[in-house]
């Protein structure tokens, strides 16, 4: 199920970024897509969130391994 959701999101984003800028602004398909500024804000926000998660995970692993080293 997750693969279908991710595929749909990829197709939506690809159409939004690569095709919609070349479609006339009066075309009714524009109402299915967000403003162009969100095309940058959403991926950057997701990337920053992912980097924070990875950094937190690495920090916790380093702290835990340091505690295990001190006990020994």
From TrEMBL:
Keywords: Endoplasmic reticulum, Glycosyltransferase, Membrane, Transferase, Transmembrane, Transmembrane helix. One of its GO terms (cellular component) is dolichol-phosphate-mannose synthase complex. It comes from Schizosaccharomyces osmophilus. Component of the dolichol-phosphate mannose (DPM) synthase complex. This is Dolichol phosphate-mannose biosynthesis regulatory protein. InterPro entries: DPM2. Pathway: Protein modification; protein glycosylation. Its main location: endoplasmic reticulum. It is found in: Endoplasmic reticulum membrane. GO terms for biological process: dolichol phosphate mannose biosynthetic process; GPI anchor biosynthetic process.
